[in-house]
Design brief:
The complex is a heterodimer of chains A (515) and B (260). Chain A is α/β, with parallel strands linked by helices. Chain A has eleven helices and 23 strands. Chain A is elongated. In chain B, the strands form three sheets. Chain B has a three-stranded antiparallel beta sheet, with no helix packed on it. Chain B has a two-stranded antiparallel sheet with strand order 2-3. The chains are: A alpha/beta (515), B alpha+beta (260).
Chain lengths: 515, 260
């Protein structure tokens, strides 16, 4: 009832007396709650701005306490955990981590927890920013299709985790029910150029990392603390490629980093950066400068700040490195701008170093080489195996295609009419095997005639692909969507690459590393 | 055909054919004596609670059965029901008072019903709601064992259902296998009301003024729990204790029980 009343009287700085009399006039219809006194410090009222990671709501400008209304919806959703891997996440706001909430110390928060009507289970919320039993959990236990409200006063500033605390709590958290709430201190945090929201958490799927399909939660793995996935922001690759965090050289960056757990402690590190300031464990004082890695406990947080000095891609990791390398715990910060060679030179010398090892050409090495050659000719001579080799190439080429080529040529090879030539049923592709290789290795400009239609677009060179990858992807496209062509070998590709590397071999865009 | 009339006819039939008296309730299964071990208990609660033999509906109550009930009891029709007995979503998936419509097939379990409505239905049938102890004892049975707690495949299937979102269209009743007692769908279809659904939260414990409900939260949820690894039981207790008697939920139905 309070909510309706305050919505209609949304004026800022409303007198406390008026508020209380209006509240009494509109008596509660359904439940009788103990009367909560009006907070005399509150000068205004607003709806909290909630954001999804990696975004952070804007800093709070006001210099006084306010009544802040938060509406957070619990949703159970099935989404991507990794490429080809889906998981049923339980979420605050539809994503993992949950929506970022930003308030100010002294604020009076009216919190509404809404459990979606199609939820399977009841849920609640324990905000570590709350002083009171269960951090709100006892007051927000909510059946599917119902809504709970409670209020609290933000007594302590800091960066706090919130999470679902319904039994079995570990499972609710392991399914993604966590997020961050920032309680700004008086005067706020010092201004920076960028603020980002990063939260680590681990997932206990029945199958190992990378096994495709909808993966169920595995209780035994969770109890044993053996996750298949450790990720930032709810999925493998959520901060990678075009979803990377960004900044310009010379800008200041603040990361609000949380760790939902439920089990692991994070050794948070940004490769190639040094944290100028760390607010350890999400507290309000900068208690350390010049930090390489900072520990973030499960159910805890940290704020790190740094100034970017040089351009490049800086990788966010949990420096417990098997989590980064084998379980998905990687993110990226892409910094653009002019290089500063004094700070970082780049590679200055690239020479061969022989060390003390024996030179190539020992007897056993020669023997191995002979055996390998024998094996290769055997394979080539056996038509059954040779056919299989093409099958393997097609299969491998498909994954290269789906990572690199499909964006322009489309997943089914149809291209874009008038702009991107089709690969499906393409006479050009079958007739001009070497030109096809050339297009990938050195790019292609000018006119290309495919099935009687002329295309004038430019294809960028994809020379960073290995000879094997190019051979495989061309074998794939030459044997898909109505095409039937012979396999392209890595040797074919190497030949074209060598030809392209020769000076003045072609007028096409210069070969080299593409990026 | 109303349920009592059907019952009388069947009793006559049973007498005529000399069949056992058990056949008098063709849609009910007999669940024999057993021991229920509560997931939560205080120091003063019994460690084990005996359950006397009883009868339990073999399947949850369906839309078709519930339609018979509201026909015979107009005060439980959607537009007439008293609001203290149900929340605003009572039978919300039905087309109208006496027409379940296309969103509620006759053989699907009825959902969006409050505890009060379930209790009234049971009384109208001359039955009652099962107690929490009875329900848990009957539901502990796997297809082959009265105590399915050691049947790993059975436990895994239960757990899978608990952690999967509800389907958009609920399956019909009796889509699951029959358990040791001949009861179906105790797991895998809908949550079910029991007569004392809120007993886990109203039982005090030995730690003074801390209510037991709080112990269902966070790590404290494991205090007083018999088996902290029994996640399905936690989820059932959690679900039940989130309810109030007037609540209705999209995946919450019920079935009836009866003394022998």
């Amino acid at each position: 009832m309070k909510q309706n009343m305050t919505h209609s009287l949304c004026a800022i700085g409303l007198g406390a007396a008026l508020l209380s009399s209006a509240a009494l006039a509109e008596a509660p219809a359904k439940t009788t709650k103990p009367v909560r006194p009006i907070d005399p410090e509150v000068m205004s009222q607003e709806e909290a701005v909630l954001t999804q990671a990696p975004n952070v709501p804007p800093p709070i400008k006001r210099k006084h306490s306010a009544k802040v209304i938060v509406h957070l919806e619990v949703k159970e959703v099935t989404k991507r955990l990794a490429d080809g891997v889906d998981y049923t996440f339980w979420t605050f706001g539809g994503d993992v981590p949950g929506s970022f909430i930003r308030i100010r110390v002294g604020d009076d928060v009216e919190f509404h927890l809404n459990n979606a009507p199609d939820s399977k289970l009841p849920h609640n919320i324990d905000l570590h920013a709350v002083t009171g039993p269960g951090g709100g959990a006892t007051s927000t236990f909510t059946a599917p299709g119902h809504s709970s409200q409670f209020s609290f006063k933000a007594l302590n500033p800091g960066l706090y985790v919130y999470h679902c605390a319904t039994a079995p709590v570990g499972m609710h958290v392991a399914n993604g029910m966590y997020g961050l709430i920032l309680v700004e201190p008086e005067g706020g945090l010092p201004p920076v150029d960028h603020e980002y929201y990063v939260m680590q958490g681990e997932f206990y799927t029945a199958a190992n990392f990378g096994v495709e399909g909808l993966q169920p939660f595995d209780m035994n793995k969770a109890i044993d603390e053996r996750p298949a996935y450790v990720v930032f922001n709810g999925a493998v690759g959520s901060l990678v490629g075009d979803k990377a965090l960004t900044a310009q050289v010379g800008e200041t960056v603040r990361l609000f980093v949380g760790n939902g757990g439920p089990n692991l402690t994070s050794s948070f590190h940004v490769i190639g950066e040094i944290f100028d300031n760390v607010y350890q464990e999400g507290g309000t004082s900068i208690n350390q400068h010049n930090v390489q890695s900072t520990l973030i406990p499960a159910g805890g947080s940290a704020i790190v700040e740094f100034k970017t000095d040089v351009p490049g891609t800086f990788i966010l990791v949990d420096h417990a490195l098997f989590r980064a390398f084998n379980k998905g715990c990687l993110g990226m910060l892409k910094v653009s701008g002019p290089p500063d060679l004094l700070v970082y030179s780049g590679k200055e010398v690239d020479a061969i170093y022989l060390g003390s090892a024996a030179e190539a050409g020992s007897d056993s090495e020669k023997k191995v080489a002979v055996l390998k050659a024998q094996m290769a000719s055997e394979l080539k001579g056996n038509p059954k195996i040779a056919g299989l080799t093409r099958e393997i190439q097609v299969e491998k080429g498909k994954s290269v295609y789906m990572q690199t080529c499909f964006v322009c040529h489309q997943p089914t090879g149809l291209g874009v009419p008038g702009q991107i030539p089709p690969l499906a049923e393409s006479d050009f592709l079958i007739k001009n095997k070497e030109d096809a290789i050339r297009a990938v290795v050195i790019g292609r400009t000018g006119e290309t005639v495919v099935n009687g239609k002329t295309y004038k677009g430019t294809m960028i060179p994809l020379a960073y692909l290995t000879d094997d990858q190019i051979a495989n992807v061309l074998t794939y496209v030459r044997n898909s969507w109505g095409n039937a062509g012979d396999a392209v070998s890595a040797a074919d590709v190497a030949k074209i690459r060598a030809e392209a590397a020769a000076p003045a071999a072609t007028a096409a865009p210069a070969p080299g590393k593409f990026e | 055909m109303s349920a009592p009339r059907q019952k009388i006819r069947l009793i006559v039939l049973a007498l005529l054919t000399g069949a056992a008296v058990q056949a008098a309730e063709p849609d009910m299964a007999r669940v024999s004596n057993g021991i229920f071990r509560p997931l939560f208990r205080s120091q003063t609660d019994l460690k084990e609670e005996p359950v006397k033999s009883f009868r339990l509906d073999a399947v949850p109550v369906t839309n078709e059965k519930f339609l018979e009930f509201v026909r015979a009891n107009p005060r439980w029709q959607r537009s007439r029901v008293k609001r203290i007995f149900t929340d605003d979503n009572y039978l919300k998936h039905w087309a109208s008072d006496l027409d379940p419509g296309t969103n509620a097939h006759p053989d699907q379990p009825v959902v969006w019903v409050s505890w009060f409505a379930a209790k009234a239905f049971a009384q109208w049938q001359g039955k009652r709601l099962p107690t929490l102890a009875e329900w848990e004892w009957a539901a502990a049975a796997s297809p082959t064992l009265a105590d399915g707690s050691r049947d790993a495949a059975f436990q895994r299937d239960i757990f899978r259902w608990y952690s999967t979102p509800s389907p958009v269209v609920l399956p019909d009743v009796a889509s699951g296998p029959s358990n040791f007692w001949g009861v179906r769908d105790l797991h895998g279809l809908v949550w079910e009301w029991v007569s004392d659904f809120n007993s886990a939260t109203v039982t005090g414990d030995a730690r003074g003024d801390t209510g037991l409900d709080r112990q269902l939260f966070c790590g404290a949820g494991a205090i007083g729990a018999r088996d902290p690894g029994n996640f399905p039981a936690f989820m059932r207790y959690g679900f039940r204790s989130s309810l109030k008697a007037a609540y209705t939920v999209h995946n919450l139905g019920f079935r009836c029980a009866k003394d022998l």
